[in-house]
Amino acid sequence: MATETTTNIQATGWEYSAAPERFPISIEETNKLFIDGKFISPKSRKWFATTNPATDEKLADIATAGAADVNAAVASAKKALPKWSKLAGSERAKYLYRIARRIQERAREFAVLETLDGGKPIKESRDVDIPLVAQHFFYCAGWADKLEYAFPGRNVQPIGVCAQIIPWNFPLMMAAWKLAPALACGNTCVLKPAETTSLTALRLAEVLQEVELPEGVVNIVTGAGDTGKYLAEHKAINKLAFTGSTHVGKMLMRNSAGTGKRLTLELGGKSANIIFADAAIDQAVEGIVSGIYFNQGHVCCAGSRLFVEEPILEEVIQKLTHRMKSLRVGDPMDKNTDVGAINSRSQLQTIEQYIKTGVAEGGQLHEANNQQLPSKGNWCNPCFFTDIQPSHTIAREEIFGPVLSVMTFRTPEEAISRANNTPYGLAAGVWTDKGSKVFEVAKRLEAGIIWCNSYNRFDAASPFGGFKESGFGREGGMQGLKPYVKLV
Amino acid sequence: MRQQVDTVMVEQRAASFTRRSIKTESKTQGLRLALSMIDLTTLEGKDSDEKVRSLCRKAITPWEGEITPPLPSVAAVCVYPSLVAIAKRALDGSGVNVASVATGFPSGQFPLSVRLDDVTKAVEAGADEIDMVINRGAFLSGYYDEVAEEIKQVRIACGDAHLKIILETGELETLENVRAASDLAIEAAASAGPIADGEVFIKTSTGKISPAATMPVTLVMLDAIQSYFDKTGVRIGMKPAGGIRTAKQSLHYLVMVKETLGNDWLTPTLFRFGASTLTNDVLRQLVRQHTGRYTANFDFSEA
Amino acid sequence: MSRLTVPKTYKLYIGGKFPRTESGRSIPIQDRKGDTAAHICHASRKDFREAVEVAAKAASSWSGITGYLRGQILYRMAEMLEGRREEFAAAICVTSDTKIAAARKEVDASVDRLVCFAGWTDKYQQVLGCQNPVASSFYNFTVPVSQGVTCVVAPDEPSLLGLITLIAAPLCAGNTVIALGSQKHPIPTAIFGEVCQTSDVPAGAINLLTGKRADIIEQIADHRQVASVSAAGLSKKERVTIEVGGADSLKRVCFSALKNNDWYDARLCASPWAIEPFVEMKTIWHPSASR
Fold first, then answer.
1. Could B73 and A2 be called an inter-chain contact, meaning their C-beta atoms sit closer than 8 Å?
2. Which of 91-150 (C) contact B at CB < 8 A?
3. How many domains would you assign to chain B?
């Protein structure tokens, strides 16, 4: 029989076949509000459509919660509070453990739904978001009966009814970061997901029913800015936790002045990623990529300002350009996709405007990825800018997209001062092999999370939150309980 | 300057390659590619002429069944120097290369003259490729110049034969050592004369020491190859050896090569698997894809 | 023949110096009988801005010294205050109905408060911070770090203990402080600068203003360099002013609800939870591997 006998065959141009996630998922045509343990139609009688940002196809209708609906949700949370807050911590813990388990068991369903509704690659919702959601509930569950040890010398009490408003970049994960500690500490909640990504939160409501969480302990109201405003300004809430833009965060702080409402704000960032010449360069390049292109750059802690020590700038650019060639942009439901769809048309327009500004201000745009983007849906090629100064618009303002500004520095002092020269203070990356430098730079960076020789790592046990205009309060870890307790 | 390597990040990236989903057509293509990249290896004290002849037969025609398009031969048969002549005759005209381990394989614990003589004999017997071992003792003691000089001399002794430099990464232990040894080996080989694409490989292991090839170790070596290419435009080859037993693993490695060095390296000229049991697992998968039926062990000849 | 006294005008304490207010304004302070007991400086917005400048400059050195050294400096302040116990007790009594015995008790409590915080400077990190057992090969820990400049608005009463309690927590945390002392009973604040001056407190780390809250409260709220505000005894309107103004730079705002005897309760006033509002939690990740 015949066989091929050449050893020096030409390189084949081996490409991956489509690898679509085929998990069958059903989505209700209309998705109601979750109030007092039941799914109910909105009194507002209004609905809005949620679409798949990768295809522009409509997925479902979602209820718009009006003022009356928000009232009902808050009243339900208030009614549930006395019993829930007096329930033994060990019993509250069991509900949270049950939630964690059910999420693990339904992980694939949640991942698929998250990707359909939000546009993030299935790889990320499967390997990052949903596992972290389960971990967060599991982690906080364990605290519910141990709060006295977290706050030695104090009597720990819940705050009361918590209003929680979350963004669209990590929809279910943000819901978990809000709900899990609040519930563990004995509070009741009204959660408002972002209008473009409500589906997984509503599916979580199904889980809450499954685990028989007492009615009213968690209520979920969907809608846009108005719904958020009704909730944030509601007189009967005791606490407002918000994750989103710095602009809205400031507004909420102003509006809640004098009310005595407790406030937690997780806001924007313009985080610095600093690469010293003595770093492990290949891994640092990996960190640059995961720092800015993870989740399409829709990450509040994205390493969007890259500072490279001058002598290695060329090498880093060369390696980064090369590395970006293997980033796969496209269908979020394909298991091999690295960068998915931009979450909404308006966000895409914002990003595109920033890219234009970057070019107009003299930045050199590098779109190292030469892949064909799908014709339908919202897409942005990952890119970076060189010839950027810290004063450029794209180096100062949060873009919330896959756009990186590359700058340089000559000395550690210069790196630190450039990195800190921003009103934000959420996160920073430091890459050097020298231990003493790692610790000194980490010490002096004004940011709530410092990733040394790494970037964008998350863990339920690790507190997350920023300095300065990136907000206040922490989520995760022992410190993440503090925003949900009253110490007396 | 020694290039720094951060283990945790390397492991993280290496693991990311294993999460690629390689299905349908890309799987068939990948497995055929993997098959064509195998250095079918036997390196045992009890190796016989007969075993080597049998191996060569397998190398030329990995599977006797009908499959279209026909399966490729493997890249090379890898044997001890004393068996090179047997393999050379058995493979004559097939296009399958003869590779010979040399330089006092696997320990390398012999006087340099003996090791060089080993190479010369293998080349004279017809070896197309020489798989040498570096002097790990000298490397770990910091005698880098000595290690480099020996590599240079071996390359000269190779003449036209291609050279694969075994770092024995399991004995180097740290990824930083792996990177340093990779850089040193490449530079040392280059010091003996210009390198054509694929003329020099770096190779993880002898297969006699555990751990042999791992994804993180291979990734670090690929990074070294990339850096050398960025600097010089010369393509050094890569050969992970030992420990790669399943078709799935081989696809993980191909994904890693594709996403680091790129498609240019996806050819037996520049990438090899040092393996023996891998062949039959790749064949099983290919036949299963072809026929739609799962096969049994006994359906495939032992190498 | 009775001797004519030499009354002094109490000055501000800014950047380690005792300037008069740039505005040239002073306020006569009446004693219990309604006679003018002294004049105090009526700090202006410009004085406040100047204090922010020096406090911001001093922030890196005050936060940069070791906790051990900060502790020694706070302890030194306690020593100096103890040494001037009678003077401070008298100062408390000048404008208020407080009996001298009670005033001495307040001074004693103030000394004890400083001593307590002096002890916390190198310990609160261990109580508030921790190592986090993340589920990956990382060494991860959370440490409390300083915020920068804290503005303190002290309650009218207790005039000394309220001030000391509110400034000690942010100082302990490594923040530099600008404090506006009791509006009704400003003399203890005015003379406390002399304690700071003789206690090795670096210039600018503590700045003390006297005057009227209404004049500078908006500045306190609006100044973007101010990282946090600690206040007690404010009206709702004043609290709203601080929160609304503070929103622009997302100030950390901490209103104390302490009343009367609460100020004497170290458990309420000098626990790590009194320090916690004035630190930022910084979480550091580093890969951990030997291979």
1. no
2. 136-138
3. 1
Region A83-108: mean pLDDT is 98
We report the CATH number of the domain holding residue A47 as 3.40.605.10
Same domain, A133 and A246: yes
- Domain map (residue ranges) of chain C: 9-127+143-261
pLDDT digits (tens, 9 = 90+) for A123-154: 999 999 999 999 999 999 999 999 999 999 89
Q: B8 and C287 in contact by Cβ < 8 A?
A: yes
Could you tell me whether strands A383-386 and B162-166 are parallel, antiparallel, or unpaired per DSSP bridges?
A: unpaired
Q: Which domain holds residue A76?
A: 30-266+468-487
Q: How many angstroms away from the CA of A457 is the closest CA of chain B?
A: 11
Q: Is the dihedral of CA B245, B249, B255, B257 positive or negative?
A: negative
What CATH superfamily is the domain C9-127+143-261?
Aldehyde Dehydrogenase; Chain A, domain 1 (3.40.605.10)
Residue A477 has pLDDT above 60, yes or no: yes
Q: Which of chain C's residues have a Cβ under 8 Å away from the Cβ of A258? A: 236, 239-240, 243
Share of chain B above pLDDT 70, in %: 99
Closest-CA residue of C relative to B216 is C291
Q: Please report, as a single letter, which amino acid is at residue A468.
A: K
How many Å lie between the alpha carbon of C280 and the closest alpha carbon of chain B? 28
Q: What is the 3-state secondary structure (H, E, C) of chain B?
A: CCCCCCHHHHHHHHHHHHCCCCCHHHHHHHHHHHHHCEEEECCCCCCCHHHHHHHHHHHHCCCCCCCCCCCECCCEEEECHHHHHHHHHHHCCCCCEEEEECCCCCCCCCCHHHHHHHHHHHHHCCCCEEEEECCHHHHHCCCHHHHHHHHHHHHHHHCCCEEEEECCHHHHCCHHHHHHHHHHHHHHHHCCCCCCCCCEEEECCCCCCCCCCCHHHHHHHHHHHHHHHHHHCCCCEEECECCCCCHHHHHHHHHHHHHHCCHHHCCCCCECEEECHHHHHHHHHHHHHHHCCCCCHHHCCCC
**Domains in chain A, number:** 2
For residue B118, pLDDT beyond 80? yes
Residues 53-112 of B with CB under 8 A from A: 60-61, 64, 66, 69-73, 75-76, 94-97
Rg of chain A, C-alpha, whole Å: 23
| Residue at A188 is within a domain | yes
In the predicted model, is pLDDT for residue A8 greater than 70? no
- A488 interface with C at CB cutoff 8 Å: no
- The candidate with the shortest Cα–Cα distance to C59, out of C215, C173, C210, is C173
Residues of A belonging to the active site: 266, 300
Report which DSSP code applies to A189.
E
Q: A298 and A165 in one domain?
A: no
Q: Please compute the mean of the pLDDT values over residues A116-125 and round it to a whole number.
A: 98
C127 interface with A at CB cutoff 8 Å: yes
- Which helix (H) or strand (E) segment holds residue A19: the answer is none
Q: Which residues of B touch A20 (CB under 8 A)?
A: none
Tell me if C247 and A151 make a contact (CB, 8 A cut-off).
Answer: no
**B9, B30, B267: residue with CB nearest A454:** B9
A280 interfacial to chain C (CB closer than 8 Å): no
**Which residues on chain C are in Cβ contact (under 8 Å) with B175?**
291
Compare CB distances from A472 to C135, C140, C250 and report the shortest one's residue: C250
- Kindly report the pTM of this predicted structure: 0.95
With respect to residue B288, please indicate whether it lies within any of the assigned structural domains. yes
Q: Do B24 and A17 touch (CB under 8 A)?
A: yes
Residue C216 DSSP label? H
| Angle at alpha carbon of residue C206, lines to A417 and C70, rounded to 5° | 75
Which A positions 136-155 lie with beta carbon below 8 A of chain C? Answer: 151-154
Closest in C133, C248, C286 to A250, CB measured: C248
Do residues C244 and C228 make contact, with C-beta atoms less than 8 angstroms apart?
no
Whether A193 maps to a domain, the answer reads: yes
